[in-house]
Write a structure and sequence with these properties.
This is ABC transporter ATP-binding protein. The chain has 273 residues and is an alpha/beta fold. The protein has a domain of 145 residues: Rossmann fold, CATH 3.40.50. It has a six-stranded mixed beta sheet, with helices on both faces. Strands 2-1-4-5 form a four-stranded antiparallel beta sheet. The N and C termini lie far apart (59 Å). 35% of the residues are buried. Bound molecules: adenosine-5'-triphosphate.
Length: 273
């Protein structure tokens, strides 16, 4: 998790286009999306449902190939899964038959490497799970499972962490607690983070920049700098500046959805008759 001082972007996405082959033809999920992300930056991706956020994020992970375009990590093409990239999903995806410690060890068993126990213990302590290593997923709350997933993703010290709506399934209080935790960990060890969220408030709380995507085929419609100092306190989050930025982004997303509405009505008419 070292800071890059070369000046080149940590992660660079150039003209990423992804078409899925479906029974009714090719579906272009994202179209020529480009984005440079600096080392140690937190960038959120927001946009209307189905606009291609997950496709965009997964492209960065190397977990699925692009139809055209490229993704570079430290200047080198990302062509498959890399230990330099960690992922957290909406579901914690812990293996139910393994306790917490065994779940965290799992990636190391797959990679055939030895975990850095001191680092993992420090992470577990950080997220308040140091006493829970022998517990099974069913014995942990949703928030605890998601904290465990965060520890598992950070356990092998990736320099980039990709998070796909990681706290979307949690209640509002737990979600805020998770946001504070991510910021706290990031302030200590500035990993580069790209995060998908449906919550603009969450995006503002966590990010240096917020990328707004247009409806499918997803494109980068705009990028907003988030200028608020860190750590971001609840007081900052209730200022007029945050309120205004939230509204600008919300209106942008609603605006792009409204521009699609007449087309949807036109499509729906024959069925309604
Ligand atoms: N494996 C796939 N095969 C075919 N189509 C897919 C596949 N994955 C996604 N899509 C389609 O691609 C489009 C973009 O999907 P994606 O999940 O990337 O959007 P999203 O913005 O993350 O959606 P949401 O906000 O609802 O989670 C959608 O129309 C979706 O139905």
């Amino acid at each position: 998790m070292t800071q890059d001082t070369s000046g080149q972007p940590k992660l660079r996405v150039r003209n990423a286009t992804k078409a899925y082959h479906t029974r009714s033809g090719d579906l272009i999920a994202i179209d020529r999306c480009s984005l440079d992300i600096k080392a140690g930056e937190i960038v959120s991706i927001v946009g209307p449902s189905g606009c291609g956020k997950t496709t965009f994020l997964w492209s960065m992970s190397g977990l699925h190939g692009l139809t055209s375009g490229e993704v570079l990590l430290d200047g080198k093409p990302v062509t498959g899964p890399s230990r330099d990239i960690g992922m957290v999903f909406q579901e914690a995806n812990l293996l139910p038959w393994r306790n917490l410690d065994a779940n965290i060890n799992f990636p190391f068993e797959i990679m055939g490497t030895k975990p850095d126990r001191a680092w993992i213990d420090s992470l577990l302590g950080r997220v308040g799970l140091d006493e829970f290593g022998s517990r099974f997923p069913r014995e942990l709350s949703g928030g605890m499972q998601q904290r465990a997933a965060l520890v598992r993703a950070l356990s092998y010290k990736p320099s980039v962490l990709l998070m796909d709506e990681p706290f979307g399934a949690l209640d509002a209080f737990t979600r805020e607690e998770m946001n504070r935790l991510v910021e706290e960990i990031w302030l200590d060890t500035p990993t580069t983070i790209v995060l998908i969220t449906h919550s603009i408030e969450e995006a503002i709380f966590l990010s240096d920049r917020i990328v707004v995507m247009s409806p499918r085929p997803g494109r980068v419609a705009s990028i907003h700098e988030v200028p608020f100092p860190r750590p971001r306190s609840p007081e900052i989050m209730s200022t007029k500046e945050v309120f205004d930025l939230t509204n600008v982004i919300k209106l942008e997303i609603v605006g792009t959805q409204q521009s699609r509405y007449p087309a949807r009505v036109a499509e729906a008419q024959p069925e309604a008759q």
